[in-house]
């Protein structure tokens, strides 16, 4: 009999009653150190007092009004995003998938309004842009698209980070290039600064619109407000979600004035997108993460975690191969199935997330403390030691 929850997830037998900072707590009081943070969502930890205050204050006044009216909380968040990024304008969504849909529509509409329609959008293998029919067409992996019939046409996947393939594929008929500066689901695979510059240059030469998907790597995760800032290049359109709401459903599409020029009144909309509750929380998140002191702390703690993880890899050469990523978006390339390390971690009350390319993801709250970092690596060390002595014997 089908479970009452549609069984599209393989769920671990863990259930949490509350959260506190970097910890998730079961009903019996068992505390798990959370290095998944809801997959980079709980960027400021669980039950962050500033976010709880922003949410409850707004909840007591006004939850929802239609986008038929002015929404001051939405205006404030848009202003914060525009002030702090390449973008001139923002549209708010409830998720990363919805941001992907608008990014695709915006790029195609731009060319349509120019009177020279372009449809083809170049993407990369291993990408993840969401689960809508458009977003799975963009990523194109068999695992995501199989069985769903005809997909949105016009996407072409190139081998990951293959600049020669991009050079060969891009032309003055290319509508857009859509890419994650650091692939998340694909296994914490960063583009080099040189590749980021090459992509920007090829887009400039052909007119193609550059779309960065920063749903996972954005919002201070890498130690800059957005990951592309490390390379010095900016996109024309950017998708944001996950960390921007700190756990409240919120996403956004940011764009330059030119890239957004086709999106006039009536061309797009969302009932819930940009609602006062989400935007009040999002504005508080932005206030906190744009503080230079906050970003400096993320970078300091990232260096500490990375150094300890290098030690962990050296101590368990049969389990781990290396560390990659940037800031507090780190991956441990594994020599065993990453799901086995995740399971062994559960038995030591530490939560991590598997990804493709044999990679274990570590995406802790950006507010994690030095002591919690040390504790996390101690627990991962014990989990790895168990796998060395009894591979695949872990239960739970
Ligand atoms: C999670 C994710 C998405 C989809 O976001 P949802 O909020 O799950 O719709 C898109 N792109 C990237 C890079 C992601 O990590």
TrEMBL record:
Q: What is its main location?
A: cytoplasm
Q: What is its EC number?
A: 2.6.1.11
Binding-site list for N(2)-acetyl-L-ornithine: 131, 270
Relay the cofactor remark from the entry.
Binds 1 pyridoxal phosphate per subunit.
Q: Where does pyridoxal 5'-phosphate bind?
A: 96-97, 128, 213-216, 271
Where in or outside the cell?
Cytoplasm
Catalytic activities: N(2)-acetyl-L-ornithine + 2-oxoglutarate = N-acetyl-L-glutamate 5-semialdehyde + L-glutamate
Subunit structure of this chain's protein = Homodimer.
Q: Under which name does UniProt file this protein?
A: Acetylornithine aminotransferase
**Organism this protein belongs to:** Defluviimonas salinarum
Name the gene.
argD
């Amino acid at each position: 009999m089908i479970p009452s929850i549609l069984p599209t997830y393989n769920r671990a037998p863990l259930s949490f009653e509350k959260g506190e900072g970097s910890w998730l707590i079961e009903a019996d009081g068992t505390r798990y150190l959370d290095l998944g943070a809801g997959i980079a969502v709980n960027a400021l930890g669980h039950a962050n007092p500033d976010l709880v205050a922003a949410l409850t204050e707004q909840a007591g006044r006004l939850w929802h009004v239609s986008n038929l009216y002015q929404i001051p909380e939405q205006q404030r968040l848009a202003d914060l995003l525009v002030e702090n990024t390449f973008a001139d304008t923002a549209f708010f969504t409830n998720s990363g998938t919805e941001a992907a849909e608008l990014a695709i529509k915006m790029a195609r509409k731009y060319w349509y309004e120019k009177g020279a329609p372009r449809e083809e959008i170049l993407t990369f293998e291993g990408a993840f842009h969401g689960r809508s029919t458009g977003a799975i067409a963009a990523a194109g992996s068999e695992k995501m698209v199989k069985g769903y019939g005809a997909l949105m046409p016009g996407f072409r996947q190139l081998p990951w980070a293959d600049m020669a393939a991009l050079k060969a594929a891009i032309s003055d008929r290319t509508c857009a290039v859509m890419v994650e500066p650091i692939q998340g689901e694909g296994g914490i695979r960063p583009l080099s600064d040189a590749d980021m510059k090459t992509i920007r240059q090829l887009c400039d030469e052909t007119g193609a619109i550059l779309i960065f998907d920063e749903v996972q790597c954005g919002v201070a995760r890498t130690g800059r407000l957005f990951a592309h800032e490390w390379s010095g290049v900016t996109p024309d359109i950017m998708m944001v979600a996950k960390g921007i709401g700190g756990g409240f459903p919120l996403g956004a599409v940011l764009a330059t004035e030119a890239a957004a020029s086709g999106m006039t009144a009536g061309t797009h909309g969302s009932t819930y997108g940009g609602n006062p509750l989400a935007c009040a929380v999002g504005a508080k998140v932005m206030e906190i993460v744009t503080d230079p002191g906050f970003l400096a702390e993320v970078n300091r703690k990232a260096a500490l975690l990375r150094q300890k993880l290098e030690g962990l890899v050296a101590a368990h050469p049969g389990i781990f191969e290396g560390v990659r990523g940037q800031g507090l978006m780190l991956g441990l390339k594994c020599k065993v199935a990453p799901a086995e390390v995740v399971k062994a971690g559960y038995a030591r009350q530490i939560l991590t997330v598997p990804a493709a390319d044999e990679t274990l993801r570590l995406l802790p709250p950006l507010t994690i403390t030095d002591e919690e970092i040390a504790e996390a690596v101690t627990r991962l060390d014990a989990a790895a030691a168990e796998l060395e002595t009894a591979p695949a014997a872990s239960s739970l």
